[in-house]
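Person: Please work through this fold.
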Amino acid sequence: MNKAVKKTKNQNNASNKKKQSIDTIVEKDGDSLNYNPFTTKETIKPFDLDIEDEIVEKKEHKTDPFKELLKKRIKQMNAKVDRTKENKEERETFEDEMEKSSKEWYEQNLVNDVPRKLTIM
């Protein structure tokens, strides 16, 4: 609470500062004709910021365009990785099938070929 300073005379004729609250000064001086409300100090209350906080919160609830773009890019990258995995699996199965078919062809045509066996020895 703000304090007002009022000088009073001491018994030794020395000035002594005495603190009184503003409320008591207003009560005493409020009825007199010499009372000037502009000379007294008032306690200033802070502005209520609830309205401004609500506006800020509403802005925060809106999605950030950078975050949206980031999410979109992540989805694209995940889709690309999935496609490459599928293509890799298809290639591996195709390679396995080619390997099997080439082994079968080799066994059928070259391993069981009698004239070739005779010439190799």
Remarks:
- The chain has four helices and two strands.
- Strands lie at 3-9, 15-21.
